[in-house]
Amino acid sequence: MNKPLIFAWITAIIATLGSLFFSEVIHFVPCTLCWYQRILMYPLAILLAIALYRNDPAIYKYVLPFSIIGMIVSSYHYGLQKIPFLKKFEMCTSGVPCSGQYINWLGFITIPLLAFIAFTIITIMMLILRKQS
């Protein structure tokens, strides 16, 4: 079995289930940037599962664009929450503000940070997979 592929898939599953838990169980309404991050993360759970089933190490070619863009979106989102100056550039104009923080564990762990960590883990695993190929 390919350990980086397994670890990336487990990370994508946890991130997807965590996202669904926050919205469907706890009833947190996702903001615009949260939706973009979901659009980038949810397919990864499926793509990585298929690649794991087929033992396809070339999946990194398809996963890396999603995970790298996800890192960019989630880091911008986290910046909106934690850097007051960036609130001037907030793109969420209706509904839930992107600078809002449903959770703030230990004073710095928010939902976008959790997404950033997941996208980063997946990116690192795909880079390892690419190096192994």
Describe the structure in your own words.
The protein is mostly helical and 133 residues long. The chain is built from 4 helices and no strands. It has one domain. 68% of the residues lie in helices and 0% in strands. α1 packs antiparallel against α2, α2 packs antiparallel against α3 and α3 packs antiparallel against α4. InterPro entries: DiS_bond_form_DsbB/BdbC, Disulphide_bond_form_BdbC, DsbB-like_sf.
- Identify the overall geometry: elongated
Number of separate strands: 0
From the N-terminal CA to the C-terminal CA, the straight-line distance is: 14 Å
Domain count, please report it: 1
Which spans have pLDDT < 50 for at least 5 consecutive residues? none
Helix content: 55-70%
Mean pLDDT: 95
- The helix/strand series, from N terminus to C terminus, equals HHHH
Q: Work out the helix count.
A: 4
Largest pleated sheet: none
Quickly give the structural class.
mainly alpha
Beta content comes to under 5%
Rounded radius of gyration (Å): 15 Å
The quaternary organization reads as single chain
Family: Belongs to the DsbB family. BdbC subfamily.
Membrane topology: Multi-pass membrane protein
GO molecular function, one term: protein-disulfide reductase activity
Protein name: Disulfide formation protein
